[in-house]
Amino acid sequence: MIAFLIICMIADPWADGSPAVEYGAGAGYGQAYYPENILGPPDPDATPAAPSFGENNLLTLGKDGSVVLEFINNSIINEPGVDFTVFENVMDTGSGYFQECAFVEVSQNGSYWIQFPWNPTTLQGLAGLMPTTGNDPTNPEISGGDQFDLEDVGLEWVRFVRLTDCGDAVEDGGLFDLDAVVAVHWSTGIQEPPVDINLSITSPFTSSFTIRTEKTGKLSCYTIDGRLTGQWQINGEPATINASALPSGVLFFTLNESLLQAVKLVK
Predict the structure, then answer these.
(1) CB 147 within 8 A of CB 85
(2) What percent of the chain has pLDDT over 90?
(3) pTM passes above 0.70
């Protein structure tokens, strides 16, 4: 299911629209109020012991379901510390937290996505771990929720956040219920999205990759820690690049300093 919403308003730290949603098994709760129930600030009455409830405040994604939130008239930007927070209705049971988890991805243009790394043992890096406090949602020191730093994915700004229920990949309490996504660091300057380019890595991901674009310029490859590992001049024609000298791991490709895509090279 695809849904669209465009809202023209004064820029603020809240997500402005939801350009896409895909429900999984067990979804249904909150759909009658979508997308308004996941836009704007989190439920101000939520506390760790009494989390948000009501279909007008939450959207259940269902098993493996996903939803995209868009910041239309501003961008989340990378500054020191937490850059945005995801709020779910996590409950403090007194002996621990009742958690329902989701993978978190970000994008500059809504087409190329980078997932935040997460730990399968501690679940750190997922959303749905920490309760909402009811305090200022733009202050990560007191807001609660699950906090993310764009530095961890090597991006200077994003305008899209995608949440995907973890399904069977994680042992948690059930289905992810989204309340809100809030920018901590943001700018009203609308960033130019990355160029539309087709980047394909050929199987078995060890020998070469092909660039297809009408754009021209310098293609660069970086490791996740920012180390430049290769550069090539692109002239607007399909080009096959020898990848044998590139290191294994997550690699980021840019064209004229605009992010194209992140890929995992396995050798």
Answers:
(1) yes
(2) 60
(3) yes
